[in-house]
Amino acid sequence: MSIEDLEDIALAMVAPGKGIIAIDESSGTIKKRFDSVGIADTEENRRRYRELLLTTPNLSQYISGAILFDETIRQSTSDGVPFPRYMAENGLVPGIKVDRGLQPLAGCPGEVITEGLDGLRARLEEYARLGARFAKWRAVINIGEDIPTSTCIEANAHTLARYAALCQEQGLVPMVEPEILLDGDHDIETCYDVTEATLRALFQALYQHNVFLEGTILKVSMVLAGKDCAEQADVDDVADLTVRCLRSAVPASLTGIVFLSGGQSDEQATAHLNAMNQYDNNPWPLSFSYGRAMQSAALKLWSKDLAGNYAAAQQTVFERARDNGLAALGQWKPAG
Question: At how many degrees (to 10) do helices 27-37 and 292-303 cross?
């Protein structure tokens, strides 16, 4: 695959008014979500749930692609069509989560590093054969007393860059995700400083590893106060500080930026995205790659009647996709 192909895929991922649905929950995470609504955590129920999401009628009107889990990329629809093939035939770009989760960062109490580089080249080769066109790797930065350290930020940036270079070697667009966690009582200014430092380190590492930014997507947290902070910023302040931080630290040559919802409510995630797209002259598309903020309402509805509520749950998925697609254009309006 040529460099131009990588750029074309990345551009399709952030097409105007479209975003990405994240359905790459690990086995442990999907079990917790199923347990919370009383659904048995079986392979067939996981397959049926992912099929519900991916086969939502007219989904590609507002969704450009989906991030899958290892189990999901190997599964098929009820009609026997492999999910990656179904997606490609219905206007969705197949993606795959490739990291292997968080581990404590040795020598840095309270901080973590994402593992999974060992054997990654071979895994990427297999995922490309299975139909993946992009991949995702999540790093996590905690804010607390005396953290994050520069050691943690630089170690995660280096790992993200190594992953991204391997992706492009195999013809996959890398989605690099440095998530700043909402846990804690830090204020929004602290989040701004940590986000800026993390992004600067990330793009320096990507440059050092010769990663082609025009064939790369950034998935990033919004600049928000910690969930335990007494003072929470309003929508306009979140939008202003997030856009300002991105303009300070992210090269204009990057193809696009998608946000994670990161513990926000469905409406908060949509409102913040919409406000950011009210700004003129953003150098990159600002869109979404939401998991819970796209799925939670549909999962609750489906759990009440797995057969009878199937179509209604899909309609809920479509409505969330529509709202966030409009927000990616700055055209969303709250209900009422």
Answer: 50
